[in-house]
Amino acid sequence: MHRLVQAGSWQPKRDGASWIRFCLAAHHLQTQEVRGRFEAASRLWFRLQRLAEQHRLDVRTVSALYAATQGYLHRTTYQAEEALTRDQALAGEVQASKLPVTFAPPAAANTTAFIHYR
User: Fold this and answer.
1) pTM of the entire structure?
2) Is 65 exposed, middle or buried (0-12, 13-18, 19+ CB in 10 A)?
3) Which member of 12, 20, 30, 74 has the lowest number of beta carbons within 10 Å of its beta carbon?
4) 87, 42, 93: which is closest to 68 by C-alpha?
5) In the structure, how many helices (H) and strands (E) does the chain have?
6) CA–CA dist 51, 101 (Å, integer)
């Protein structure tokens, strides 16, 4: 795009409108993508909150369940994020393992995680 606008080098007399249009369009597309990801993450988070409530799990397990749907759950990370002792984190793992669901993490960054009921 820069070659189109400036013909490969800085030329202050050339019109930069096409470059500005390109930048604005790119920012708009990026904003739409981020918004879509945020909305999908929010929907998933609220579904996981309901799931935790239905199974009487501690509210702090929601972050671990969310991490599991994204394919990056590690006990030590969950423990640190929730300021838990090792025993508390292990107890949360045991609780979550009793849920009648399996998690399918997204295959790519732009796909949705799914919760499958057993």
Assistant:
1) 0.60
2) buried
3) 12
4) 93
5) 5, 2
6) 10
What is the full per-residue pLDDT of the chain (118 aa) written as tens digits?
556 666 667 777 777 788 788 889 999 999 999 999 999 999 999 999 998 898 888 887 888 888 878 877 777 777 777 777 877 777 766 666 666 666 565 555 444 454 544 4
Q: Which residues of 79-88 are buried (b: 16+ CB within 10 A; e: fewer)?
A: beebebeeee
Q: What's the residue count for the chain?
A: 118
Spatial CA neighbour of 63 closest among 50, 51, 53, 48: 48
Q: Which ranges constitute the DSSP H helices of 55-117?
A: 61-70, 75-81, 86-97
Give CA–CA dist 75/47, Å, rounded: 22
Q: How far apart are CA 43 and CA 104, in angstroms?
A: 16
In the chain, domain spans: 15-111
